[in-house]
Amino acid sequence: MTDSTAPAPERPPGKRQRLVTAAVQLLHRQGIERTTLADIAKAADVPAGNVYYYFKTKNDIIAAVVEAHAQQIKTTLAALDAQHRSPKARLKSLVREFAAQSTVVAQHGCPFGSLCSELDKRVAEPAFAEAELLTLPIDWAEQQFRALGRRDARDLAVELLAAYEGHALLANTLRDPDILTNAARRLTHWIDTL
Q1: In 84-152, which ranges are continuous DSSP H helix?
Q2: Is the CA virtual torsion 153, 157, 159, 163 positive or negative?
Q3: What CATH number should be reported for the domain holding residue 25?
Q4: Are 108 and 162 in contact (CB under 8 A)?
Q5: Residues 123 and 172 placed together within one structural domain of the fold
Q6: Which Pfam families does this chain map to (predicted)?
Q7: What percent of the chain has pLDDT over 70?
């Protein structure tokens, strides 16, 4: 019989987070199909058997990766809101965030767009909330364009994200980070003209 007044044993601190962080990086660099739970455990410096304590299946860890990305996006957008007073400044700062990732995107693709594309092709798998990874920045950008008095705010927000994702795909395919850097300059000018 166990002592019901004793505190429940705690999970070792940090293992789950290390697994999610490793999964985020590996899924971005290698893709879903080429990444195994053993790869994730090794990269996280967690014994392979311990992975199942936190995640029963690969789909469970993929869901955690999607949630980690969504949280990162929310944090970034909240920081942009806090750092800038005007909607134009916020939008241009978002474009700078895009450009700051140009080297990594040229090597491995957009972390969000690539993951969404891969998950969309897994028709037999359960649904994930990956669409949120693209709707979060679109909804945020729409608010910024609306604050600028634009009636076509939704269209402009979609255009902004589509421009980034398209340039990210080209930068990755051609392994050329300048594609994103140049696109960011054009997008900044476009925002200034609105």
Answers
A1: 87-100, 102-108, 111-120, 132-147
A2: positive
A3: 1.10.10.60
A4: no
A5: yes
A6: TetR_N
A7: 92
Give the rounded distance of the alpha carbon of 148 from its chain centre.
26
Minimal CA–CA distance to 111: which of 3, 11, 5, 24?
24
Tell me whether residue 21 is in a domain. Answer: yes
Residues of the domain holding 25:
13-56
The per-residue pLDDT for range 27-57, each reduced to its tens digit, is: 999 999 999 999 999 999 999 999 999 999 9
Helix/strand/coil for 172: helix
Length of the chain counted residue by residue:
194
In terms of Cβ atoms closer than 10 Å to its own Cβ (0-12, 13-18, 19+), residue 34 is exposed
Q: Is the pLDDT of residue 112 over 60?
A: yes
Say what percent of the chain tops pLDDT 90. Answer: 86
Same domain membership, residue 74 and residue 52: no
